[in-house]
Design brief:
Strand content: 25-35%
CATH superfamily of the largest domain: Alpha/Beta hydrolase fold, catalytic domain
Number of domains: 2
Structural class: alpha+beta
Strand order of the largest sheet: 1-2-3-5-4-8-9-10-13-12-11
CATH architecture of the largest domain: 3-Layer(aba) Sandwich
Radius of gyration: 21 Å
Number of strands: 21
Shape: globular
CATH topology of the largest domain: Rossmann fold
Oligomer: single chain
Number of helices: 7
Largest sheet: 11 strands, mixed
Helix content: 10-25%
Length: 361
């Protein structure tokens, strides 16, 4: 696909907040798509190395919104990008008329189609990023809020060869997307939705599917397990998982009891945790069994001895938890297939004996 031209201005942003340090870059980019100038923000993580192949996470704002507002005040993925080394991209919607209102909007193939090529915009951004930064094109992800979330179902249906996984917040699939498109590819899908969302009702309406119907639809497309498991993710938030079957694609849904039409504060973490397990072929290491065993724990010396069997080639990190978010050890415990086991980790508190293996490849 010919991209036309790209115009970019690199802004080195130095804020008083401790969240920003030298080495981080925020780039304003403009690209021509079908003769129309389209804009997007690119955030390069701290200590970015342009020779390193990093995943990319796109985040699409809601109707009437703006890319910078989305980044700064709604869905700030920058801290996670710094911690986990991925590129965060915030596209900008065009000003257009939708249902009689004039505001920034994302276009869909359906009764309100205004002719804007959002699929071409997404593909052009991916190609430009790959050319500029040598990104990992097998690990491209997209998420969106509200109208930007509705767009994710167009991407899932038509760009499953580009995106490894998508996530939507406060947005279901339009009925016309369901009626008109048959997805060509399996793709990881995650949704976060409040039960009291009146703009995009949890139980659906004449315009959009209910969340139950949406989940059933993608479980069938992905050939995921038909029986779900559920756990309490946070107070009032239930997490439902339809696990991968032989095709290695899952479906996840977060049901926010009493939640309204907004972006819940846990969304960035939940979305990246989901995306981090995927590449274009599905769940990474799906089908291979890695056994992590705690062999012993010496309470007096705070020494933890672990063993890992069948560890594939790659770069991994062991992280700890006391029942919430998984955090790095201090210092970090990085391992690979050449690591000698059993492995002794020193200075481990008794409360931190929930251990998880994270893929850093």
């Amino acid at each position: 696909m010919k991209l036309g031209y790209i115009r970019e201005v690199i802004l080195f942003t130095f804020l008083a907040s401790s969240c920003f340090v030298s080495g981080q870059q925020l780039i304003n980019k403009t690209i021509s798509v079908g003769g129309v100038d389209r804009e997007y923000l690119v955030y390069l993580p701290r200590d970015f190395d342009r020779n390193q192949s990093l995943p990319v996470l796109f985040c699409f704002h809601g109707g009437g919104g703006y890319s910078e507002t989305m980044m700064r005040f709604t869905a700030d993925f920058r801290p996670l990008a710094d911690e986990n080394k991925f590129i965060a991209v915030y596209p900008q919607g065009l000003v257009a008329s939708a249902k009689g209102d004039v505001a920034t909007n994302w276009n869909y193939k359906g009764p309100y189609d205004n002719g804007t090529d959002e699929l071409g915009f997404a593909e052009s951004m991916i190609e430009a990023l790959a050319a500029d930064h040598s990104v990992n094109t097998s690990r491209i992800f997209a998420c969106g809020f509200s109208q930007g979330g509705n767009l994710m179902w167009d991407f899932a249906s038509l760009l499953g060869d580009r995106f490894a996984a998508v996530a939507c917040v406060a947005a279901s699939m339009w009925q016309w997307t369901y009626d008109d498109f048959s997805p060509n590819d399996k793709i990881g899908v995650l949704s976060i939705h409040g039960t009291n969302d009146t703009y995009n009702p949890y139980n659906g309406n004449q315009y959009s599917l209910s969340m139950d119907s949406l989940n059933d639809y993608w479980v069938d497309i992905n050939n995921s397990e038909v029986t779900f498991s559920s756990t309490e993710y946070a107070r009032g938030v239930e997490r439902y998982v339809w696990g991968p079957a032989e095709d290695c694609h899952s479906v996840e849904h977060f049901r926010v009891q009493g939640g309204i039409h907004d972006w819940p504060s846990f969304s960035e973490q939940a979305i990246w945790e989901f995306f981090s397990r995927y590449d274009i072929d599905g769940l990474i290491q799906c089908g291979s069994t890695v056994n992590l065993t705690i062999e012993s724990y010496d309470l007096s010396n705070r020494e933890l001895t672990i063993d890992i069997d069948s560890l594939p080639s790659g770069s991994y990190e062991l992280r700890k938890s006391i029942g919430g978010k998984f955090l790095s050890f201090d210092p970090e415990v990085n391992i690979n297939s050449d690591t000698q086991f059993p492995l002794i980790i020193r200075g481990v508190k008794e409360s931190s004996l929930i251990i998880q293996l994270w893929d850093k490849s």
